Amino acid sequence: MKKIITILCLLIASVSMAQDKLPYYEIPESAENYTAGTVASRMIDGLGFRFYWATEGLRLEDLEYKASDSGRTSGETIDHLLGLSYFILNSIIDKAEKEKVDKLSFEEKRKQTLLNLKKASDILRKSDDVSIYDNKRFPFWNIINGPIADALWHCGQIVMLRRSSGNPFNSKVSVFTGKLKD
Questions:
Q1: Pairwise CA distance, residues 28 & 46, whole Å
Q2: Which of 2, 16, 52, 64 has its CA 20 to 30 A from that of 10?
Q3: Full-model pTM
C-alpha cells in the first residue's frame, strides 16, 4: 500500500511540475521552411533558451552581485531584460501588453520574460513577411539589431556575473543544439 501511495505521489508531482514547466528549457523544434518570420522566431527562441539557462538557479547573492560600483546587478539586468521582452512583443502585436514589473519576485520576472519571448516567437513563426511589423517609428530591422541583440548581450552579462558570484553556468547546456548534453 505504501508503494502505491508513493508512486501516486510521484506521478502527481511530476504532472504538476510538467504543467508549470517554463518555455525554453529546450529550443522548440525548428520550422520546416525558412521565411523571414521563422528566422526571426528562431532568433527569439535562441534568446529564450539563453535567458532560461542564464537565470536558472540564481541565488539571492547572484541577483545582488555587481562587478563594479557603476555596473548593474544581475537583478537589475533581469529587470532590463523583462523590459526588452515587452518591447519585442509589443512591437509585433496589435494591442500592447501592459508591462507587469512592479513588485514582482525574481521568479515572476523570469517567467514573464520567458512567456513574452515565447508569445513573440509564436507570432513571428506564423508570419512570412515581418515587414508587416514595421511601424511609423521604426522598421522591423531595428527590433533585430536593437532589443533582440541587446537582450542576447545581457544574457551573457548574467552568465558572467553568476560565474563571478560563485554560481557557474550549467556546463551541460549546449547553445549550439538548444538542448542539455547527456
A1: 9
A2: 52
A3: 0.87
- Taking the C-alpha atoms of residue 54 and residue 65, their distance in angstroms, rounded to an integer, is 14
Cell, residue 48: 529564450
Task: Tell me how far CA of residue 73 lies from CA of 34, 64, 143, 151, in angstroms.
Answer: 38, 5, 25, 15
Burial of 62 (0-12, 13-18, 19+ CB in 10 A): buried
Cell numbers found for residue 103: 513588485
Residue spans of the domains in the chain: they are 31-180
**C-alpha distance from residue 8 to each of 16, 20, 21 (Å):** 12, 18, 20
What pLDDT digit, counting tens, does each position of 59-101 carry? 999 999 999 999 999 999 999 999 999 999 999 998 888 877 7
Q: How many CB atoms are located within 10 Å of the residue 160 CB?
A: 14
